[in-house]
Amino acid sequence: MSKKILFLATMAVVVIFSSCSKKLTALDAAYIKTTPNPLEMKAGEVNATVTGTFPQKYFNKNAVLTVTPVLKYGNKEAKAQPVVFQGEKVLGNDRAISYKAGGTYSISPKFVFEPEMAKSELFLNFDVVQKKKTYKLPGLKVADGVLATAQLASTSPKELQPALSPDNFQRVTQENQDADILFLIQQAQLRNSELSKDDIIEFTAKVKDARDAQNKEISNFEVLGYASPDGNLELNTNLAERRQKVTTDYINKELKKLQANVSVDSKFTAEDWDGFQKLMEASDIQDKELILRVLSMYQDPEQREREIKNLSSTFQAIAGEILPQLRRSRLKMTVDVTGKSDAEIMNLASKSPKELTANELLYAGTLASTTREQADIYEQFVDIYPEDARGYNNLGLRLYYEEDVTAAERLFEKSLSLDPNSPDANFNLGLVKMAKGQLTDAQAFFGKSAGTAGNLNAALGTSYVAQGEYTKAMNALRGVNTNNAAVAQIISNDYNGARNTLAAIKFPNAMTAYLGAILAARTNDRDAVYSNLRNAVQLDRNFIKKALNDLEFAKYFADTTFLSILK
Prior knowledge:
Serine Threonine Protein Phosphatase 5, Tetratricopeptide repeat; disordered N terminus; single chain; Immunoglobulin-like; 25 helices; six-stranded mixed sheet
């Protein structure tokens, strides 16, 4: 009976030992639990929790036990911080373990992740000091390998869509021209003195220019008749309409003389309160602010006029300075100007880039047929327009695509020195910092990137994956159909979400297929593992070595079909 009880007790404890021995005896890995197992890489580290129990009457009162977690991979090993336990009679500050009662223990090793750790083993090494004598207990393997699926989240520009500064090029731009013809009080007759003014002469010249230029066309021509906001409304309505009509008739005759085929739109405004307010705001008239308050307080024209006329001295100034300018017709013209063709722009970009505007030259960069041609254009841009931040950003972007991260970083910084608020340069510099592992700096630059042309959510989500904040990553990447979004979903065990994301990726690549294989392995879809892996290695044979060492496929390591795919 006693032997049976002793046997059961021995099997229930973490450590197998001989209570009669003066030395500590070997520990049994079967009674030690490691979480997670296999280990996982998170935020660039491998963390684990190893728990067990020192049984009753095991821990010698005079013993000091040092436990050192060691991760062995290839011909290398990494040691975590040792944990020390001591017997009841030992003088020291380490955790004391009761001989009679025993005790539980927990060890939390931490390792800086290296890719070779994918195939590895976690051991516990035991060193004992007992009454000035030292000896070792047999080491124990407590975990196998490291899952590093989070590391598949890429910081490459192809995945994250860096931001090209806008060229603001418009093929068709607009030129606006206007002029006023003034009338005497309560009259609607055109005067030669008004028709010969400089602004009317200039207006006519613009009409001729639009008529003659091959790249110009008058898209809108308006005549607007007005009366000043004083006196009887009926009278003012009649005046405004007559002024609009006589001016329209005059303009139509002039356009006919000029042989300009233009349609004229016309309308009138009886009392020009908007014009009145603008002129008041620009004036130095006494009580200006009071007048403006009247306009804001009262919407009824008659009420406004009464309140203003009550300020007799002020009204005299208004009548002399403001109202005469409102007795008018206004000519308004919009001319559409068609700019250079793509062929013309590219020809000049190659032969005479200085003849192009900044916007045209930046636009030429988007038309370039090769990356070298694009880089040449941006290099020309920063030489010709050295104070324009956009050129440095776009040249830096070109170098970033070529994986010259250091040179790209300098150019993004130069761009920000000229325009610190540029959302695109801030975004791109954030991508560089993330690629260099400087995640705090990356987050700071992303915080200044609102409005960027880049995919800010994709970048933020990727940075959260790198930090091990998978819930934040999932939220940031919601609706983003990229490989990185699928990575975040897989490591968060959102397998349905990952499946939908992978299916929605517009341009799937080898990584897309590889992630599909991981997803299939996790969901026990053997055929999908084979088909996706086959696709991945056909597109990129680097995935052969990756798959052979990836613990996501641990249960396939002896599978003949799996191995045949990875030959």
